[in-house]
Amino acid sequence: MTQEVHTTENIVETQAEVTHGTTVADEGLAASLGLNGQLFAWQLLNFAVVAAIVWFLILKPLTSKLEERKKLIDDSLDKAKEIETNFETSEKKYQEKLDEAKAEANKVIEQAHAEGKQLGDSMKTQAKVEVEKLVEQAKKHIAAEKDTMFEDIKKEAASMIVLALEKVLGEKMDSEKDKKIIEESLRNLKK
Questions:
Q1: Are residues 19 and 50 in the same domain?
Q2: Which domain holds residue 28?
Q3: Between the CA of residue 50 and those of 39, 58, 66, what are the distances in Å?
Q4: In a 3-state reduction of DSSP, which class is residue 174?
């Protein structure tokens, strides 16, 4: 049985070689390269159909989506750069405003200090003027008191002199003599 199977195989191989030999001669160049023209045409048509399906159903939508994403990413990057630029600008403006506020605060502090110093100087001057007025009033009051006391002393001295003269002379003096003696006594006192 093995011989029969072996023989059958040999027959099939021989027929295949014969069949193959006739086709090779018939097909020419494609056959010499080991290509079947009809099969190649079908495979080429299948490839074209699959390529068209892949292009229209997968690659074209995929490339359009990728373009949309690329555009979206580019827009996002542009907006991020714009936001960063705006942020830097805002930060600079904030710093400028902060510097202006600090400068203004320093001016206000300096102005308040100057006004305080001026007010203090003004109050010192006013107090000095008021003290001088009080001293002047006190001097006037003292001078008036002095004059009043001096007048009182004059009157007291005059009456004492009159009493003393009356006792010494033993007689009452009249007002004319009295005046004359008082005036002389007062002149002596002033000297």
A1: no
A2: 1-35
A3: 16, 11, 22
A4: coil
- Phi and psi at 132, nearest 5°, equal -60, -40
Report the C-alpha gap between 12 and 34 in whole angstroms.
Answer: 20
pLDDT single digits (tens) 9-55: 555 565 545 444 444 444 577 677 777 888 888 999 999 999 999 99
Whether 45 and 65 share a structural domain: yes
Q: How many domains does the chain have?
A: 2
Q: Are residues 136 and 91 in the same domain?
A: yes
Q: Which residues contact residue 161 at a Cβ distance below 8 angstroms, ignoring those fewer than 6 apart?
A: 181, 182, 185
Rounded CA-CA distance 133/145 in Å is 18
Provide the whole-model pTM: 0.37
167 and 112 part of one domain: yes
